[in-house]
C-alpha cells in the first residue's frame, strides 16, 4: 500500500534539508518497504546536495539506512516483515559485472543510484507539489520509511545494533572493501591511507586485521590522526607538511608504499598518493571529487609497474560482504563505536554541520 512518511527533502541545489510529509508508492513485486531505525550520513549525500554529483531536485537522499521490514512485494524472497535489514546501493542484477559478483560496477550504477527514479524512469515519492526524486542508492533513507529494491537489502540478526551498523552499507564497506577485496595487501607490505574520515578509517581498521606491517595514516586533522593510531595505524603523517610523498618514502626506507588508498577526494592528496608509490605499488582511488575533476600525473613515474585503480563501494557485493563486516563488528575487530555519533533525525542539519566542520567522523541519524 502507499504510505505517508516524513522525509528530509532537499528542495534545490545547496538548500538545507527540510523535514516534509511525503507519500511513498506501494511496493512493486521486487520492492520492500523499510521502517528506518537509523541512517548514516555519507559525504556523498553532501556532495549531491551541493551539486557536485548529479541528481534531480527536489530529492530525498540517504544511503546508509538500517531498519525493519514493514511490507514486501510478492516476488521478494530474501526478507519478510519484521526482519532487521541494512540498506546498501542498488544494481540491475543482470549485466555482466552484476552476474560476475561485482555489482558496484553495474552497467546501470549511475542512473539506478543517482537518477532519482526506478530503472524504468518511474518515481517512488510524492510531495505536496508533485514528484520528489527518490530511489537514491535504491533507498532514499533520510525518511521515516523507505521504498527499497530487494537488491539493496542485507538481512542482519534480530539483535543487530542498527544504529551502530548503518554505515556498513556505504562508508565502511567502501574503505574496508578497498583493502580486503581490491588491494589485498600481503604480509609485510606497507600501506598508506590518505584522508582518515569514515572511509579512510575503515581502510585502516581493515588493514590492521592482518597483512601490512606498516599502516600510515595521512590527514590534516591531528585528532583524526590520533584516532587512526588507536584503530591500527603504525605511523601518521600531517598532510599539511611540505612534501607528503617524501615523508612516506622516508618512513619506508626510501622505497615508497606498496599500497595507497586515496579517500580524501582531494587532488593534491591523490598526486601525493601516486608519487609515494613503491615500484609495482598500487593506488586505489576511493574519494570522489566533483564530477569532471582531472589530475595531471607524471607518466614516466608510473612506468615502474605502478597501478592506479578507481574503486566504488569497495568492489563489494553487499549481500556477501556486509554480513562479514557485521560479524567483525560483533567480535570487536571493527570498533565502529569509535567513529559514530548519533543524532535524532530532526537534528539532521546539526549532524551535517558537525560533519562539515570535521567534528564528527560518522554521524548516524536515529528515528523514534
Ligand atoms: C559513491 C561516490 C561517488 C560515485 C559513486 C559511489 N560512493 C558512495 O558514497
Ligand atoms: Zn556513501
**Highest-level CATH class of the largest domain:** Alpha Beta
Please state the CA-atom Rg, rounded to the nearest Å.
20 Å
Sketch the topology as an H/E string, one letter per element. EEEHEEEHHEEEEHHEHEHEHEHEEHEHE
Count of discrete domains:
2
Instruction: Give the structural class.
Output: alpha/beta
Overall mean pLDDT stands at 97
Shape: globular
Per CATH, the architecture of the largest domain is Alpha-Beta Complex
Helix content: 25-40%
The overall strand count is 18
The CATH superfamily of the largest domain is Medium-chain alcohol dehydrogenases, catalytic domain
Bound molecules: cyclohexylformamide, zinc ion
Let me know the largest β-sheet.
7 strands, mixed
Number of helices: 11
Give the CATH topology of the largest domain: Quinone Oxidoreductase, Chain A, domain 1
Poorly predicted regions are none
Question: What portion of residues belong to β-strands?
Answer: 25-35%
Distance, first to last CA: 22 Å
Domain Enoyl reductase (ER): 14-365
Protein name: Alcohol dehydrogenase
Family: Belongs to the zinc-containing alcohol dehydrogenase family.
Cofactor: Zn(2+)
Amino acid at each position: 500500500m502507499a504510505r505517508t512518511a516524513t522525509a528530509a527533502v532537499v528542495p534545490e541545489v545547496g538548500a538545507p534539508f527540510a523535514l516534509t510529509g511525503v507519500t511513498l508508492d506501494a511496493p512493486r513485486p521486487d520492492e520492500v518497504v523499510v521502517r528506518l531505525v537509523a541512517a548514516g550520513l555519507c559525504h556523498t549525500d553532501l556532495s549531491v546536495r551541493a551539486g557536485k554529483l548529479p541528481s534531480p531536485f527536489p530529492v530525498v537522499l540517504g544511503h546508509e539506512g538500517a531498519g525493519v521490514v514493514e511490507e514486501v512485494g510478492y516476488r521478494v524472497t530474501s526478507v519478510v516483515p519484521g526482519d532487521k535489514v541494512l540498506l546498501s546501493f542498488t544494481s540491475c542484477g543482470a549485466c555482466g559485472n552484476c552476474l560476475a559478483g561485482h555489482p558496484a560496477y553495474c552497467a546501470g550504477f549511475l542512473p539506478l543510484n543517482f537518477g532519482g527514479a526506478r530503472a524504468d524512469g518511474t518515481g517512488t515519492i510524492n510531495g505536496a507539489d508533485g514528484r520528489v526524486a527518490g530511489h537514491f542508492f535504491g533507498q532514499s533513507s533520510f525518511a521515516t520509511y523507505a521504498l527499497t529494491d530487494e537488491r539493496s537489502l542485507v538481512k542482519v540478526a534480530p539483535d543487530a545494533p542498527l544504529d551502530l551498523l548503518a554505515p556498513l552499507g556505504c562508508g565502511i564497506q567502501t574503505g574496508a572493501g578497498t583493502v580486503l577485496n581490491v588491494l589485498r595487501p600481503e604480509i609485510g607490505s606497507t600501506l598508506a591511507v590518505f584522508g582518515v574520515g569514515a572511509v579512510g578509517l575503515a581502510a585502516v581498521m581493515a588493514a590492521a586485521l592482518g597483512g601490512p606491517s606498516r599502516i600510515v595514516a595521512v590527514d590534516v586533522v591531528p585528532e583524526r590522526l590520533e584516532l587512526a593510531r588507536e584503530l591500527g595505524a603504525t605511523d601518521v603523517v600531517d598532510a599539511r607538511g611540505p612534501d607528503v610523498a617524501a615523508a612516506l618514502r622516508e618512513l619506508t626506507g626510501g622505497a615508497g608504499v606498496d599500497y595507497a588508498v586515496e579517500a580524501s577526494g582531494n587532488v593534491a592528496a591523490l598526486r601525493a598518493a601516486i608519487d609515494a608509490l613503491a615500484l609495482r605499488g598500487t593506488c586505489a582511488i576511493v574519494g570522489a571529487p566533483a564530477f569532471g575533476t582531472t589530475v595531471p600525473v607524471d607518466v614516466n613515474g608510473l612506468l615502474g609497474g605502478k597501478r592506479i585503480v578507481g574503486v566504488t563501494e569497495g568492489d563489494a557485493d553487499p549481500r556477501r560482504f556486509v554480513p562479514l563486516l557485521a560479524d567483525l563488528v560483533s567480535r570487536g575487530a571493527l570498533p565502529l563505536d569509535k567513529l559514530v555519533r548519533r543524532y535524532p533525525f530532526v537534528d539532521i542539519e546539526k549532524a551535517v554541520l558537525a560533519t562539515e566542520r570535521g567534528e564528527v567522523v560518522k554521524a548516524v541519524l536515529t528515528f523514534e
